[in-house]
Specification:
The complex is a heterodimer of chains A (about 240) and B (about 375). Chain A is α/β, with parallel strands linked by helices. Chain A contains 8 helices and 9 strands. Chain B has one domain.
Chain lengths: ~240, ~375
C-alpha cells in the first residue's frame, strides 16, 4: 500500500522529480504523483447535489492511500499571472507582513486587499479543489507552497511566450512587487488550508534570496517553475510534518 | 361663486387627483434643473444613495466615479471592496455634519485626533470609513496611503461634478468630545473602543442640519461654483436609536427633521429636493419595504428611479453617446481582460511544457 499519494498542477513536477532523487535512498516512503490536468482526472470536480466532489478517479486514488498521506500542489502560479508583467496601469501596495518594503516610484498605491481579493477569485477553483480533497478523506494532508517568483535575469533568459519581443522586456515587473504578490497568495493559501484542516508547508527561508526571489540552486527550466532540489526539500518536509512513514 | 386661492391650481396640488386617482404616484413637480448623459453626477449619503448611482450608471448616464477599481481587479473583488457603490470610497455618510467634515478633512482644514481604530482582530480601521475594508487595513502605513489617495479622489469629485445627489439618512450620531469629529458608527461597533469620557451622543435638530448643509454648500461652491445639488431623505428606518424611546418614534423624528431641513434648503440657489422618501415611506406609492421592514425592495427603487428619470434626466441622449460611453468602458475592461488572458496563456504554456516532461498523458490546455 502506498504511504502517500500526491496530486497537483504544474508545480507537482518539481516535487515528483525531487522524490525521484530519493528513490535511491533506503527507507523512502512509497507513493505516486498525479497531474491534475491528466485527461482521466478532468474535470477534477463533479457536482453532486450542489456540492463539489472529487472526480471518481481522483477519489479512488485517495481511497487507496488508506492511512497514508495526501500531498497537494494545487494551482499556485496565479501570483505570476498577476505580477510578472506590468501590462496594466502600474500599481503597488504595502505588504502587511513587510510594511517596510519600498513602493515603486510612480505606481498608484492600492490596498493589499485589492490583490488578495483578486487572487482569491482567480484561485477559487483551486480552493474548491482543496476543500474537496479534504472532504474526501481524513488522511493526513498537506498543500505545499508554490515556489517564489524567479529573478529577472532568469525570466529574461527563459521568457517563453511571456516576453515575445524585446519591447515587452521592459514590462517585466520589479522583483519586490512580484515578491509581495507571492506573499499575498501564500497568505490566502494559509487561510484556506487553515479553514479546511490541511497542513500548509511553506518554502524554506534559504530558498528565497535577498530580493525575495527563488534562490539560484532551486531554479527550474522556465520563468515560473522550480527544480528537483526544491521538490526534494519540500517533499521531505511534507513527509516530516505528516508523519509519513 | 367667488374666487379663491384653490381655484385653478395644478392637479398635483389636489390629493384626489395626485394620490388617489393617479396611475403611479409621482410627487415630483418641475425641478429647477435637469441634466443629460454628459452631466457628471456624484452621489453620497446613506445606504439608499447606493441605488441612485447604480441605476444612473446602468442607464448610461455619467455617474462620476473618481476612485475606481484598478482594471486588473476581478469584478467580484471590486464589488466586495465597495468600488463603484459611491463616487469615491467614502462609505455611508449619514448626516450633513459628516459631509461638511469630509470636505474639511480632504482639504486639510480638519484633522481629527482620533483617526485610527483597531477592530477585535487588531486590524486597523478608518474611524470615518469603518467598513470600507472588509478585513481592515493591514497597518497604519496602508491606511495613511489609502486615505491620501481617497482624499485626492474626493477633491476631484467635488471639483468636477456638475450635480451632487446627497441622501440624508440620520440625525443621530456619535462624536468626539475632544474635537467634535463625528463618526459614522458608534465607536466600539466596527472598531475603536467606546469611552464615555471621549465620545458623546448627539441628535441633530433642524437648525443644525440646515446650518451644516449650508456650510457644505458654501464650501462646495468655493471649489465648484456651478455645482447643483439634489437632496433626498432616505426612507430606510433607523436600525437602532440611542435615545431612550421607541425606535419608530426616533425614526419619525429623524426623518421629519431631515425633511423639514430639505424643505428649507431647497429654496437655496441650485438646490432642489427629490421626494424619494415620500414615494417609499408614505405607503401611498405601494408597500416598498422588504420583510425586515427596513430594506427597500427593488420595486421601490424602480419607482423612485422612474420618477427621478422622468423629471431630472433629459431623455434626448443619442444612441451614439450611450454606445460611445459603453464602448469606452468595455474597451478598457476588455483590453485589461485581454492582457490578463495573454499572460495567463503564456504562463499556461509554461505549465503544460513543465508537466509534459514528466506526465506523458498530460492533457494540454
Amino acid at each position: 500500500m502506498s504511504s502517500f499519494v500526491a496530486f497537483g498542477h504544474s508545480h507537482v513536477v518539481a516535487l515528483a522529480r525531487g522524490f525521484d532523487e530519493m528513490l535511491a535512498e533506503p527507507d523512502h516512503p512509497n507513493g505516486g504523483f498525479h497531474y491534475l490536468h491528466d485527461a482521466r482526472f478532468v474535470p477534477n470536480l463533479t457536482d453532486e447535489g450542489g456540492r463539489d466532489r472529487l472526480n471518481p478517479d481522483l477519489r479512488r486514488l485517495v481511497d487507496e492511500v488508506g492511512s497514508g498521506s495526501v500531498i497537494l500542489s494545487i494551482a499556485g502560479n496565479e501570483h505570476n499571472v498577476l505580477s510578472i508583467l506590468q501590462t496594466f496601469q502600474k500599481f503597488d501596495f504595502v505588504l502587511g507582513e513587510r510594511p517596510e518594503l519600498p513602493l515603486e516610484p510612480g505606481a498608484e498605491v492600492f490596498p493589499e486587499a485589492m490583490v488578495r481579493e483578486t487572487l482569491r477569485d482567480w484561485l477559487d477553483d483551486g480552493f474548491r479543489l482543496l476543500a474537496a480533497f479534504r472532504a474526501a478523506t481524513s488522511a493526513p494532508m498537506a498543500q505545499l507552497e508554490a515556489p517564489p517568483p524567479l529573478p529577472r535575469a532568469h525570466v529574461l533568459a527563459h521568457p517563453g511566450e511571456l516576453l515575445p519581443d524585446p519591447a515587452s522586456r521592459d514590462k517585466l515587473s520589479p522583483e519586490i512587487f512580484r515578491y509581495k504578490v507571492w506573499r499575498v497568495q501564500a497568505g490566502l493559501y494559509r487561510e484556506v488550508c487553515g479553514k479546511c484542516g490541511i497542513t500548509y508547508v511553506p518554502v524554506f527561508p534559504d530558498m528565497v534570496d535577498g530580493n525575495g526571489m527563488l534562490a539560484a540552486p532551486f531554479h527550474g527550466k522556465d520563468a515560473t517553475h522550480a527544480n528537483a532540489a526544491f521538490g526534494r526539500r519540500m517533499m521531505m518536509e511534507a513527509f516530516h510534518l505528516l508523519g509519513t512513514q | 361663486m367667488s374666487d379663491h386661492p384653490y381655484r385653478n391650481r395644478p392637479a398635483w396640488t389636489r390629493w384626489r387627483h395626485a394620490v388617489v386617482e393617479c396611475d403611479e404616484l409621482d410627487p415630483m413637480t418641475e425641478p429647477p434643473f435637469t441634466f443629460g448623459p454628459k452631466t457628471a453626477v456624484v452621489t453620497a449619503g446613506s445606504c439608499f444613495a447606493q441605488h441612485i448611482g447604480r441605476r444612473l450608471a446602468a442607464e448610461g448616464f455619467n455617474y462620476l466615479v473618481t476612485e475606481p477599481a484598478h482594471p486588473m481587479m476581478s469584478p467580484g473583488a471590486a464589488a466586495r471592496l465597495g468600488y463603484g457603490i459611491y463616487s469615491a470610497l467614502y462609505g455611508n455618510i449619514y448626516t450633513p455634519r459628516q459631509r461638511v467634515q469630509l470636505f474639511d478633512r480632504v482639504y486639510g482644514r480638519f484633522e481629527p485626533r482620533e483617526d485610527v481604530w483597531r477592530d477585535g482582530n487588531g486590524a486597523v480601521v478608518d474611524p470615518f470609513r469603518p467598513q470600507i475594508q472588509p478585513q481592515g487595513f493591514n497597518g497604519e502605513k496602508e491606511l495613511a496611503l489609502d486615505r491620501e489617495r481617497h482624499f485626492r479622489a474626493v477633491r476631484e469629485a467635488f471639483e468636477t461634478l456638475d450635480v451632487f445627489v446627497f441622501t440624508m439618512g440620520l440625525t443621530e450620531a456619535w462624536r468626539s468630545r475632544v474635537d467634535g469629529a463625528v463618526f459614522p458608527l458608534c465607536p466600539g461597533v466596527a472598531g475603536g473602543v467606546f469611552d464615555r469620557k471621549k465620545h458623546e451622543f448627539v441628535n441633530f435638530d433642524v437648525e443644525t442640519v440646515v446650518a451644516d448643509t449650508r456650510a457644505f454648500l458654501q464650501r462646495l461652491r468655493s471649489v465648484n461654483p456651478s455645482a447643483k445639488v439634489i437632496l433626498t431623505v432616505s426612507p430606510v428606518p433607523l436600525m437602532a436609536t440611542a435615545e431612550d424611546r421607541h425606535v419608530l418614534v426616533s425614526t419619525v423624528y429623524s426623518k421629519s427633521v431631515l425633511r423639514v431641513a430639505c424643505d428649507v434648503l431647497s429654496r437655496e440657489r441650485n438646490v432642489t429636493y427629490f421626494p424619494a422618501y415620500e414615494i417609499v415611506a408614505s405607503g401611498f406609492g405601494g408597500d416598498y419595504f422588504a420583510e425586515d421592514r427596513r430594506s427597500v425592495t427593488e420595486d421601490g427603487v424602480d419607482h423612485v428611479m422612474r420618477v427621478f428619470s422622468r423629471h431630472f434626466l433629459r431623455q434626448s441622449r443619442s444612441t451614439g453617446v450611450l454606445q460611445r460611453a459603453w464602448a469606452l468602458f468595455s474597451e478598457k475592461r476588455a483590453t485589461t481582460e485581454q492582457k490578463v488572458a495573454t499572460v495567463k496563456r503564456a504562463v499556461g504554456v509554461m505549465c503544460d511544457e513543465e508537466a509534459l516532461g514528466r506526465f506523458s498523458d498530460a492533457k494540454k490546455d
